[in-house]
């Protein structure tokens, strides 16, 4: 059992890693594609972590901290609303659908790959 302070520290340090990784992806992948990229990669990692028997400390660090800070629902919402507000309803709907599909497929892939190994 992990105490509340160490658990919070694990989430915080994992979140710092995730936030920096999110920033790096944003520098390398432009626009809406960066949002889909981080949400898919984060979902892949989350699926893998939750399928692996790694223990509660590692789960807090990676799943809650790193994946939580790496993935971005707020940027997803901004981009979808921005496209819709600009009159690009088809782009907004396509972006939302692609984001959801990529995240779900990636999560299932991560959990299946690790589940098959573990």
Automatic annotation (TrEMBL):
Na(+) binds at residues 68, 71. It comes from the Archaea. The chain crosses the membrane at residues 6-25, 46-71, 91-117. GO terms for molecular function: fluoride channel activity; metal ion binding. One of its GO terms (cellular component) is plasma membrane. It is found in: Cell membrane. Its main location: membrane. The keyword Cytoplasm does not apply. It is a multi-pass membrane protein. Keywords: Cell membrane, Ion channel, Ion transport, Membrane, Metal-binding, Sodium, Transmembrane, Transmembrane helix, Transport. GO terms for biological process: cellular detoxification of fluoride. It holds the Pfam family CRCB. Na(+) is not transported, but it plays an essential structural role and its presence is essential for fluoride channel function. It catalyses: fluoride(in) = fluoride(out). Belongs to the fluoride channel Fluc/FEX (TC 1.A.43) family. Fluoride-specific ion channel. Important for reducing fluoride concentration in the cell, thus reducing its toxicity. This is Fluoride-specific ion channel FluC. It comes from Halorubrum rutilum. The gene is fluC.
């Amino acid at each position: 059992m992990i105490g509340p302070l160490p658990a919070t520290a694990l989430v915080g340090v994992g979140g710092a890693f995730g936030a920096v990784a999110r920033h790096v992806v944003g520098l390398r992948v432009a626009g809406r594609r960066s949002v889909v990229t981080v949400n898919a990669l984060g979902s892949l990692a989350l699926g893998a972590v939750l399928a692996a028997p790694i223990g509660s400390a590692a789960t807090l660090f990676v799943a809650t901290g790193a994946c939580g800070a790496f993935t971005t629902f707020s940027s997803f919402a901004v981009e979808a609303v921005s496209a819709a507000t600009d009159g690009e309803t088809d782009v907004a709907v396509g972006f939302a659908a692609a984001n959801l599909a990529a995240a779900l497929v990636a999560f299932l892939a991560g959990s299946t790959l690790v589940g098959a190994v573990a």
